[in-house]
Amino acid sequence: MDHFNYKDGQLHAEDVPLSRIAAEVGTPVYVYSAATLTRHFGLFRQALDWTDHLVCFAVKANSNLAVLKLMADQGAGMDVVSGGEYARAKAAGVPGERIVFSGVGKTVSEMRQAIEGGIRQFNIESEPEMRALSALAVSMGAEVPVAIRVNPDVDAKTHEKIATGKSENKFGIPIAKSRQVYAEAAALPGLKVVGIDVHIGSQLTDLDPYRAAYAKVADLTRALRADGHDITRLDLGGGLGIPYRRDNNAPPLPIEYGQVIRDAVGDLGCEIEIEPGRNIVGNAGVLLSSVIYVKEGEGRDFLIVDAAMNDLLRPAMYGAHHDIVPVREAALGAELRPFDVVGPVCESGDTFQKGTQLPSVAADDLIAFRSAGAYGAVMASEYNSRPLVPEVLVSGDHFAVIRARPTFEEMLSRDTIPEWL
Ligand SMILES: *Cc1c(COP(=O)(O)O)cnc(C)c1O
User: Fold this and answer.
1) Predicted model pTM
2) In DSSP terms, which residues pair with 271 in a beta bridge?
3) Mind telling me the catalytic residues?
4) Other residues' Cβ atoms within 10 Å of the Cβ of residue 246
5) Rounded distance, CA 309 to CA 350, Å?
6) Is 239 assigned to a binding site?
């Protein structure tokens, strides 16, 4: 459930009409609902309330400081995958002991930054990384908590670009080899083995892959304990999917996911960490855009809008679907007409949807791309020298710009022409 609804014939974010935001901030613009974020975070906490747990928001899904602060204020931990994300989590007020560091290519300087600033645990993804972290920790006189990310070789049944738990993926250590790697980790100075980490992919719409992966994690926990390791923490990753189409079957709920976790690992007495990103923020955001032109083509009509692939990359990158809705509510029984909805960028891939059925729309009308809160603004670029898309946070009847649209001056000032040119 989210807080984007039609009231008085107009799509609102909570109690704010989107047309008001468009008028004051301009378009394109991302709009997030604080109430939806809070609600979704609460559902994950509730799903794990049977045990000691920490819900670590996956920062890569949406790293705006205001969004992170909202999460942090409710007690969220953070899952970060870069030094930049670590810096954002800290700037949003998250203490180091609530930050876990994931990612296949952590550099020594990123690891140093996290050790200096405080860290809950590193999720180690390879043996070379483990050795580098050990050497660094020793040189800093530190002992750092680590979990090892195991690759359970489970098919997450999701888009191939966001599946991470098959043996051919670059992530984690093959589960069959993990006892040997844990033995080496335990012997290395500067590392304190605390747990096991797994993350099999994103936008999972079926719980069976989780069941399969977590059963393997449970077996491994027992085996590692028998080997003498003190496994007290299980980081079970993120990935629970969201309904991108409002007209089809909804993916499982957090509470059902929590039950899968309880069934698989509930008897092990471990503290549970999860790392949801998309499920918390995806449906808490829309991308608001204006129609520039309605262009009648041969056999098809184009809706040329002022949002483009540089603002919302998912359709171009994954062929992803976002429901597109008019901000002015269509009259009941209004006639629908198919449009190809495209942006102004000079690429044919800058197509959001083909043959979308929309009520009659005209230039300057507002539309909204639903489910755009996750992997939206964070993937935006300034391709075609289009200013980085701004972001707005709504709470009740007020809103704030949480990232301003840069001016051309600001954009240009980031480049330098060398004096010898
Ligand atoms: C991307 C990622 C997540 C979050 O995935 P969602 O599908 O957004 O929930 C969690 N953990 C790790 C290690 C990730 O790479």
Assistant:
1) 0.97
2) 233
3) 346
4) 11
5) 5
6) yes
Q: Look up residue 364 and give its two tokens.
A: 């300057």
Atom of ligand 1 nearest to the CA of 202: 7
Domains and CATH numbers, the chain: 4-31+282-413 (2.40.37.10), 103-274 (3.20.20.10)
Cβ atoms within 10 Å, residue 142 = 16
- Is position 275 annotated in a ligand binding site? yes
**Reported confidence tier of residue 311, pLDDT bands at 50, 70, 90:** very high
| Distance in angstroms (rounded) separating the CA atoms of residues 284 and 402 | 15
User: Which atom number of ligand 1 is nearest to the Cα of residue 275?
Assistant: 10
CA–CA distance, 205 with 263 (Å, rounded to integer)? 19
Q: What stretches of 23-143 adopt beta strand conformation (E)?
A: 29-33, 53-58, 77-80, 99-101, 121-124
The alpha carbon of 280 and the centre of ligand 1 are apart by a number of angstroms equal to 11
Question: What's the pLDDT score for residue 249?
Answer: 76
- Measured from the Cα of 375, ligand 1's closest atom is 8
Candidate from 56, 78, 81, 275 with most ligand 1 atoms within 8 A of CB, to mutate: 275
Instruction: Give the whole-angstrom CA distance, residue 369 versus residue 294.
Output: 17
Q: Express as a percent the part of the chain with pLDDT over 70.
A: 100
pLDDT at 26 over 80: yes
Distance 35 CA to ligand 1 centre (A): 22
Task: Enumerate the β-bridge partners of residue 356.
Answer: 339
User: Which protein residues are within 6 Å of ligand 1, measured from CB?
Assistant: 58, 60-61, 79, 102, 199, 202-203, 237-239, 275-279, 374
182 is in an annotated binding site: no
pLDDT value at 387 more than 80: yes
Q: Taking each helix axis from N to C terminus, what angle separates 254-265 and 34-47, rounded to the nearest 10 degrees?
A: 20
Q: What's the rounded mean pLDDT across residues 352-370?
A: 95
Output the six-digit token pair for 247: 């007209």
Q: In this predicted structure, what is the pLDDT of residue 275?
A: 98
**Nearest C-alpha neighbor of 2 from the set 372, 397, 338:** 372
pLDDT at 164: 85
Query: In the chain, what are the helix, strand and coil shares in percent, each to the nearest 5?
Result: 35, 25, 40
Q: Is the pLDDT of residue 291 over 90?
A: yes
Identify the DSSP state of 69.
H
| 285, 372 Cβ separation under 8 angstroms | yes
What's the N-to-C CA distance of the chain in angstroms? 56
